[in-house]
Protein 1
Amino acid sequence: MVLQKDNIKLKKEFDLVYRKGKNLSGRFFILRVFFQKDSQEKTRFGVVVSLKVSNKAVVRNRKRRQLKEIIRLSQKRINPGYLCLITAKKEIVDIEYDDLNKEFIYLCKKAGILKQ
């Protein structure tokens, strides 16, 4: 499980990433990345799976848990000092875990936040 301190929780942090972050769009979700110049702390993530994805809370929570697990397993490979936000698209509902993982790694490489 992703530790609570590793999550983006504050509205001002969400707003910062939305306003000034770099957007990378995939087939199943959008990755927004904002680099904090003065921060050397661990990269923190927020996951948004809205009602637009599914009206069923069970489906939304399952996808949120899958994305958080992918983040947890990839955390050691990600450079520190970033705020990242993942916003799910409708297409995420019927997708398997492995496909989500591949897209996450692809978008992180494209954003330049993975360690070489």
Note: The chain has a mean pLDDT of 91.
Protein 2
Amino acid sequence: MRFLAVCPQMLMTLMFSSIEKVTSEVVLSENVMHLSLEAAKLSNAAYAAKPSVTSFDGDAYDIKIFLDEPDQVLVTQKGGYCYVAFRGTTPSMDDWYQNIKLGTEEVCSVGGVKTCCNIRSGFHEAYFDTSYTTELEEIVEYCVSQCSSIDECLVLTGHSQGGAIAAVAGVRFAKYDPYVITFGEPPSVEPECEAVSSERWYRFVNTKETEYSDIGISYDPVPFAPGFGTVVFGHFIILGADKKHVAYVGLNSTESFSPLNIAGAESHSMVGTEEYPGYLDRIQALISNATSFPIPAQGFSAPHFCTKDVECELNKCDKETADSYSQCVGKSCTKNEDCDTDRCDSGVCLPKSGSCMHCDEDTDCASNKCTLSKCTNMFGTMDDECSCEWSSDCASGRCEGLLEPICEAQLPMGAACNENSDCLSGNCNWFFSCTKGWFLTKGKNLGKKTDFAMYGVMMGVIALIFIAYYGVKAYKKRKSGYTAIDTTDIIV
């Protein structure tokens, strides 16, 4: 919703809008990567007693700090975005109790159409049972009000438990369609949460690679902790020793990886060492080594360590011998026909370019379709963060912007909108809010209070107009029927 449509509620659009969606690939555009870098810096800073991130890259921030031990939140504004970073687990009994507390509590969105989801009780407590919750939400609302576009403004982030609390905030502020970018986040939200626009949620999982063990690669254990009925939403992205590629597992994927690195904290750290980098180190390395964007997400190049095919650029993870580590397999070639991917480049088999990556011709792309010098996804449409001309170009059905339009994720229930294509539900109501609706729409929520409220207000306004119209008309008719009294024959 970058600009207001001239006529956002055209009757035909209301009647024929579609809510069907195609699951898209992840597109780690330059914008998403820089948002992720700022999110990583602030997630790391949230642990400090007196937060400062000026020591990293020389950046300076004007940070509003909310502290109620052991919980802490940082709010700042940079580059036209509002960032809210939640502190992860600290070595305190209260914090550990929040991590293991079972059961769920209901969390509802604020403003717009009310949408509720169930959240793990401990993370619900970490968000709501603080002395600053009300003030925090007021500051966030104010910060967003300063942005030029409210649905391209809010970034919620956190590491470990902080990521789970960021998910709670993601439900609370669903109306702003926030980016939720987390690092090592444990499962926190029950499935089927309509307040979540998954395609704006990114969850990074780090790994540790070493040749001095029996395993080669191990994974941050926290994201794979028991969820007790809750899951982690968003694009599942694995970070590894490959400084130019990441492994994309899927949207809202619940796939597990092992072995887990439970003996040390290296893979779970925000900032690590040169030998064992943390989340922040690896995000920075990807940006520093990028020759173009988006960051390739088809998997690690050979011969990086792996445990599953999905982690590898050529989709093949194997052992050279029975005693060796599993590694991503590469292949030499002299011509395209030598490669399973049908692409030989500089004597090495490479995958065809994925969604939103640069192309010169259709055969450069895995989808065999190159549009506007970018590869489409496998369905022939453009994924989020890709350039577009029309909404029909986008997998999401939503092309936004004037000078450089891009595809954007559709908005969840309760978010502010100006046209039906903005919303996951396919319905932007007459109060410019995403809802399922039913009056003159394809919605399915007949009987919901919000829908009846909208219908009631509309019918009430129409009734008042009719009453006023006929009242004035009757008054004029009665007045025009009066006749003057003839006094000439009256005897006094």
Note: The helical segments are 11-16, 30-45, 93-100, 121-128, 133-145, 161-172, 279-288, 449-480.
Protein 3
Amino acid sequence: MKDQEATVYFLQETFSKVSDEAVWRTDWGGEMYFSHGTSQSKGVCILINRAVKEKVTSSSDTDSRIILINLTNNSLKLSFCNIYAPNDHTQQVSFIQQLNEQIGNYNSYSRR
């Protein structure tokens, strides 16, 4: 991905844990924002190219399916959300409710 020269990358099914972060950060070289799953399920991540030196705030869910970030570049504010929705339709309604709550909470937090 370093060779692609993109500014933002969205990863899903990272199968990552907190203990993986140091190795990933060293290898990536830029900023990384996680909502970890386990070594066998879930997990999302947003990677920011190392050339970006702006202020970022982040928020994640407890179910390892949502990561939200706000990036401020001069006076321009950008919001990014990486969502990994469940495939099981019985879980989707509660997931959408949680997503709406998370976005509402994050909007309130990011306006401070």
Note: The longest helix spans residues 89-110.
